[in-house]
Amino acid sequence: MKIPFYWPVFLTAIFCASVSAADLDRQDVEKRLAKADKANPADLRRKDLTDMDLSDLNFTIADLWGSDLRRSNLSNSDLSGLNLDLSVLSKVNFSNANLSNTSIFGVHVGGANLTHANMSNSRFIGVMDRANLSHANLSHANWGADMKNQSMGLMRASLNNVNLSGANLSYANFDRALMRYANFSGANLHNAVLFGVDLSGADFSGADLSGADLTGTSLEDTNFSGADLAGTKFAGIKDKSKLKGLGSSKHLDSAIID
What we know:
It is a single chain. By secondary structure, this protein is largely without helices or strands. Helix content is 9%, strand content 7%. It is built from 2 helices and 6 strands; from the N terminus they run ααββββββ. It has a two-stranded parallel sheet with strand order 1-2. It is elongated and about 60 Å long. The model is unreliable at 1-22 (pLDDT under 50).
């Protein structure tokens, strides 16, 4: 039985209803950041920061847990190492932002702009459908399902229709993610884990999939034109004729297809 993927949206809806607006402006945020230290981080926890210009700021000594950042501009800002669990991040502008080593759990980030963002070593479980991650850095990111903690149903990353063209996904883990119609054209997926991922309609044209694990994936109408398949694992693929673009892929002879 397929478990419906609604729990992050449900959690976010409940949480937002309890958030009290802080009515902060950029100057207020800057003052809190200026006074912050490791022992006393800037208190932005569960604050309403919607539609604000928060670009070019350093949030590394701040508490943004559960904050409402919808449609805000955080381009070029440093949020590295933060816990952004249960924050509201839909349609946020994170272009060129530093989100390395962040934790983003139970969050809706749909339609966000993450072009050229650094999300290396980050942890993400939530909804990021239709987000733009073109040329983003997701190397060593762990966006895979935690199969040891599934008391609320299958908690995983939903990345349907995302733009990951030119992105660095090397050594990243997307175990059991939903990535239907995702654009991976020209992306680096060297040694990436895509075990059990739904990649129906995805575009890997010109991508580097060398050493990637696509065991048990759904590959209906998936395009591999010009992709580097050196050592790529396709275990569980019974009919490789269904894989589009294999004729123009690179190093197909060393791909593991069974």
